[in-house]
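Here is a protein:
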Amino acid sequence: MAADLQILGRAVKAAQYRQHRTLDSRLASVGSTLAQWDALRAVARTPGASARELAAATFQTEQAFGTLAGRLATQGLLERRPGHGRRIEHHLTAQGERVLTAGHAIADEVLAECFGALSDAERDTLLGLLRKIEQ
């Protein structure tokens, strides 16, 4: 029997909500939120990226990312530098690197808990299915 699509969609959302809520609460111990840590992670993956690129990478609007980047710069975690034309490039500071690294350790713990009920094969299957939907 095929799963009800609304129930399936809600189950995906519930799992994501639990993961995000737990990450957000534990990242507070290193002075970050999930949104801030995700932004730092995106900048680390693509140093010098524009706000437009980073907004897309973090599932935000450009305006929301710009506000977040401003807060991160004020906290000394991120530098915004002039690029070509009107482009503003984003780079992590040393403090931003430290928060990002601490956040990685927290994320590893939280995700191990969230996916701990699944075997390695089930995790591989889930990842494959999610990537199939994403395409």
